[in-house]
Amino acid sequence: MGANLGAAFVLGSVLYWLALDALVPVLVLTFSLTWAALLPGLWGPGHGVLVGVLLPLLMVLVGGFTALFSHAYYHEHAPYLATGWRLYDGLHTTHAVIWGPFHFWLIGLLAGRYRPGLRAELEDAERRRILRQERVPWRNWAGSQACLPQVVCVPLMVDDLCGVVRDAAREGQRVRVVASGFTWAGFVPTDDVLVYCERLDRVEVDLSDPQQPAVWVDCGVTNRQLNAVLKAAGLQTPWNVVLETVRVAGIVSMGTHGSGKDTCTMGDLVLAFEVVDATGARRVLSDESVGAETMAAARLGLGMFGIIVRVRLRVEPAHRVLQVDARMPIEEALERMPELVRASDSVELFWFPFTDSMWVKTFERTERARSRRASGFWLLATHFLEMAVLCSLLA
After folding, report:
1. CA pseudo-torsion sign 79, 81, 84, 86
2. The domain 131-196 is classified under which CATH number: 3.20.20.140, 3.40.50.300, 3.40.50.620, 3.30.43.10?
3. Are 365 and 321 in contact (CB under 8 A)?
4. What is the DSSP secondary-structure string of 357-392?
5. What is the distance between the alpha carbons of residues 268 and 162, in angstroms, rounded to a whole number?
6. Which part of the chain is CATH 3.30.43.10?
7. Which of 115, 189, 196, 204 sits in a 20 to 30 Å window from 177, CA-based?
8. Are the C-beta atoms of residues 379 and 392 closer than 8 Å to each other?
9. Ranges of CATH 3.30.465.10 domains, the chain
10. Are 169 and 278 in contact (CB under 8 A)?
């Protein structure tokens, strides 16, 4: 009965999605059939390394990419698509949950230049939907702040944002801007116009002065996006916050701290701001244009110097970091804390309730060769191979 229902669901889903696209339903159907064949007949001991181990792990990996897309979508996008009608919003969410592989595989293919005509059609429809909406509720991540603005805007270009500000000025409305919404303070809630900055997300590395590298970052760029671009260029910010889902304009304008004993705030990395003022005009704020004292205030502006559209950040050549993880009794960790802080660039402590030990992580710059086991692709590859070896021993 269960197998028949599952087969009917997959077949019905494929037919449903064929009206929009042919390739995605075929991919999902192939994945589903392969996974269904693996579970009862080919998985586990007695089926060899290739079929019994590597193929199932490959299927898990493919499914993991779908989960990755859905995780990024949930945490970083689209709260402005809510309508306030719980049934309507619930049906949309249910659709995304039930047919998640179709949604996210299509998004991935479109990002890879698949069917540019369909992508342009969807982007045009999205622009009409998000550039101006009315009475869309907003709530911060912690649920401690909420509002129901008259107008919600999601500009796709800086000119869109300038137009939003001019319209608000003409109608006598105030404008607030939200990034990722992680702050618990009441800087965002408004009854007038709320602007989501996340679609302004370009990053431009400036190496015109090799001795003073910099990067121009749009206000909606996440730390994840910024770190990826800097890594490709062999650069890094001298310090940063831990979260990768926060957005640059938010963390530099709110006095957000760095993550080491000798670090300053994120605003201290700012060389210049490009802002949209109350008239909708674009201006550049820097030591040269407004003076050092005014610029120092703008680095902790809290929105009072205009809407930040771009930030010029000081960066530096990337360096390697030695991370050491240790487990210590609570008393030892606390006793050694002054020593650890003096010896390391950064120290993190983790304590889990109902235990008598702490997880201590220390970080310091190093000239040692990079360990393949400790970073990026090789960390994931190591985990994959460890699973393969374990399954092989069981096979």
Report:
1. negative
2. 3.30.43.10
3. yes
4. EEEEEEEEEE-SPPPGGGSHHHHHHHHHHHHHHHHH
5. 27
6. 131-196
7. 204
8. no
9. 203-317
10. yes
Sheet arrangement for strand 151-153: 133-134, 151-153, 193-196, 175-178
What would you report as the CA-atom Rg of the chain, rounded to the nearest whole angstrom? Answer: 25
- In what helix (H) or strand (E) does residue 127 lie, and over which residues does it extend? helix 116-130
| Parts of the chain with a pLDDT under 50 | 1-2
CA distance 287 to 189: 31
Following DSSP, what letter does each residue of 64-114 receive, concatenated? HHHHHHHHHHHHHS-GGG--S-HHHHHHHHHHHHHTHHHHHHHHHHHHTTS
Question: How much is the pLDDT for 303?
Answer: 87
CB count, 10 Å around CB of 326? 14
Contact predicate 332/377, CB 8 Å? no
pLDDT at 29: 85
Residues 6+ apart with CB under 8 A from 392: 49, 53
The CATH number of 203-317 is 3.30.465.10
Please state the pTM of the whole predicted model. Answer: 0.78
**How much is the pLDDT for 1?**
47
Helix (H) / strand (E) element for 8: namely helix 2-18
Give the whole-number percent of the chain exceeding pLDDT 90. 50
| Residues contacting residue 148 through CB under 8 Å, at least 6 positions apart | 84, 135, 136, 137, 138, 191
Q: Would you put residue 84 in left (φ > 0), alpha (ψ -120 to 50) or beta?
A: left
Q: CA 61 → CA 28, 31, 190, 312, 381, distances in Å?
A: 14, 11, 43, 38, 11
pLDDT at 280: 95
pLDDT of residue 284: 97
pLDDT the model gives residue 368: 84
Query: In the numeric block, which tokens belong to residue 165?
Result: 């500000």
Of the candidates 194, 157, 188, the residue with the CA atom closest to the CA atom of residue 175: 194
The pLDDT value given to residue 63: 64
SS3 at position 228: helix
| Tokens of residue 134, six digits | 């009315």
